[in-house]
Design brief:
With 265 residues, the chain is α/β, with parallel strands linked by helices. 42% of the residues lie in helices and 18% in strands.
């Protein structure tokens, strides 16, 4: 089992796809595992060397005591790149994963070739809502979160069309550690990169879901406006756009990667 070691955490990761393709690191959202990317994976692996991992406290990655910080999660991602033997990669993240990708773009630019920031924001508030969420998870467990998350993650039409997908994500949430979920929620609560993202100097694509109640399009528009040269793509989806619109999501990611000169770290 491939693992990366960082700050007392053993991060589980997998590598798929074209061995000679451009490296693409995928960072998943709060409460999900690396299987978040399954729907978009075939298109991505046809062109890229895709590196996926379970975030600290999620999936098969270990569960150090929380709370966690965005910097800690960012250094976990760097450890995954190191373990995979990748000097520089395009980094794509959804929600929490997008914040991790942004942190890399600001504080570890030498490791980043390009950024895809999906369904995320430089600051995702308010703080009081995160405190309430953490308290609920700690007191009642993940079962208390399932119904609300399905409504925020997927549009009503998608939930009706794909009950199989919804069942899989319900099970994913129910199996998530409350400690890991609360620890990563604290990282999102405390993160505020609004005054730092103008230092990003790599090609950046912002993906928003037009029906996303968790990270509304306005958060993505702020990223586009503050990150030099960033462009924005809108998909007809709620929060997990790579699941609802995998073809459009993968196409947008690959378009950004194809626009770069083929010099892979």
């Amino acid at each position: 089992m491939p693992e990366a070691i960082s700050s007392g955490c053993r991060t589980w990761y997998v590598v798929d796809g074209a061995t000679d393709g451009p490296p693409l690191l995928l960072s998943n959202s709060l409460g999900t595992t690396l299987s978040l990317w399954d729907a978009a994976l075939p298109a991505l692996t046809a062109r890229c060397r895709v590196i996926r991992y379970d975030t600290r406290g999620h999936g098969r990655t270990s569960l150090p005591p929380g709370p966690y910080s965005l910097e800690t999660l960012g250094r976990d991602a760097i450890a995954v790149l190191d373990a995979a033997g990748v000097e520089r990669a395009h980094v794509c993240g959804i929600s929490l994963g997008g914040l991790i990708a942004m942190w890399l773009g600001v504080y570890a630019p030498e490791r980043v070739k390009g950024l895809i920031l999906a369904n995320t924001g430089a600051q995702i508030g308010p703080i009081e809502r995160w405190d309430q969420l953490i308290g609920t998870v700690e007191a009642k467990g993940m079962g208390a979160m399932v119904g609300g998350l399905m409504e925020r993650w997927f549009t009503p039409g998608f939930r009706a069309r794909r009950p199989d997908v919804i069942a899989n994500f319900r099970a994913m949430i129910e199996s998530c550690s409350p400690t890991g979920y609360a620890g990563c929620s604290a990282a999102v609560r405390d993160a505020d990169l609004r005054d730092a993202i103008d230092r990003i100097r790599v090609p950046s694509l912002i993906i928003v879901g037009t029906q996303d109640p968790a990270t509304p399009p306005a958060l993505g528009e702020l990223l586009r406006d503050r990150i030099p040269g960033a462009r924005l793509a809108a998909l007809d989806a709620a929060h997990l756009s790579s699941v609802e619109q995998p073809d459009g999501f993968a196409s947008a990611v690959l378009d950004l990667i194809a626009s770069e000169a083929p010099s892979y770290g």
